[in-house]
Amino acid sequence: MKSIRKIVGSLVLLITTNLLIAQKQNLNIVFIGNSITYGANLDSPKTEAPPVIAVAYLQRRENIGAVAFSNQGHSGFTTVDFLPAIGTAFRGVELAANSFTDKQALLLFSIKLGTNDSAIQGPNGSPVAAENYQRNLKIIADSLLKEFPGCIIIFQHPIWYSPNTYNGAKYLQEGLDRLQSYIPKIDELVAEYAATYPKQVFTGDKKAFAYFKKHYLTDLTPENGHQGTFYLHPNKQGAMALGNFWGDAIYKVVEVVTGKR
Fold first, then answer.
1. Calpha distance 73→75 (Å, rounded)
2. CA 69/CA 99 separation, integer angstroms
């Protein structure tokens, strides 16, 4: 009798384990962004950049399986650079999405753009008006939704930078004001997609802007500029914080998409 109970117990454990494994959601994520996404100024972007931290966050969640990702962050890039008609950057995103080996995994695009769009001068297309910024995001998203049916798009809110930011590009208070005007445009766009692509386009993180505005001395790297020391790029601690913000936002989206929230 004991041996029978032992066998039954082992079978139940095996079945339960298999069910848990089967319930895990595998993910393929392409992170689209600028130098902040890339991990500029970090000692090792390949191990410390926000996308790496976000993936590590997701891998710690019980119902998440394998997570493959590609960091398509490029220093100085704007929404203009990622337009399909421009070619190079969008082509890199396409190649990254098509290169994942697990074709059954949920494909997500995490997009964090706007910092360079907001500049007074310097980056491609800057300054980008809020309406044009929204239009560019829509062109990028429409192209991805058409090319990768069933994919998920997550727009992460941009993060704060100091109002004296002026390196090779000129940002200053005017740029910061413009950056903040992008945020409601992101939310408006997501609301529009709710009707045309339900449960495919989401607003991601909304907390990082305020976080870095408050913690810039500890979480952003001091850099020398034309108007003194400015703060724009996360340091190692800041990249950890931003990556966790993104990871949490992505996880919540996955829960909605898979019906667990």
1. 7
2. 10
Of 5, 20, 12, whose CA–CA distance to 64 is shortest?
20
Round to whole Å and give the CA distance between 204 and 129.
22
187: number of Cβ within 10 Å: 14
Q: How far apart are CA 166 and CA 207, in angstroms?
A: 24
In whole angstroms, give the CA distance from residue 155 to residue 201.
8
pLDDT, tens digit, for every residue of 26-69? 999 999 999 999 999 999 999 999 999 999 999 999 999 999 99
Q: Are 84 and 129 in contact (CB under 8 A)?
A: no
pLDDT score recorded for residue 20: 41
Question: Which strand (E) or helix (H) includes residue 233?
Answer: strand 228-234
The pLDDT of residue 189 is above 60:
yes
Q: pLDDT (tens digit, 9 = 90+) per residue, 123-140?
A: 999 999 999 999 999 999
Segment holding 247, helix H or strand E? helix 236-257
| Contact assessment for residue 120 and residue 171, using Cβ atoms and an 8 Å cutoff | yes
Distance from C-alpha of 218 to C-alpha of 1, rounded to nearest angstrom: 63
Q: How many CB atoms lie within 10 A of CB 5?
A: 9
Q: Dihedral, CA atoms, 189, 192, 193, 195, nearest 10 degrees?
A: 170
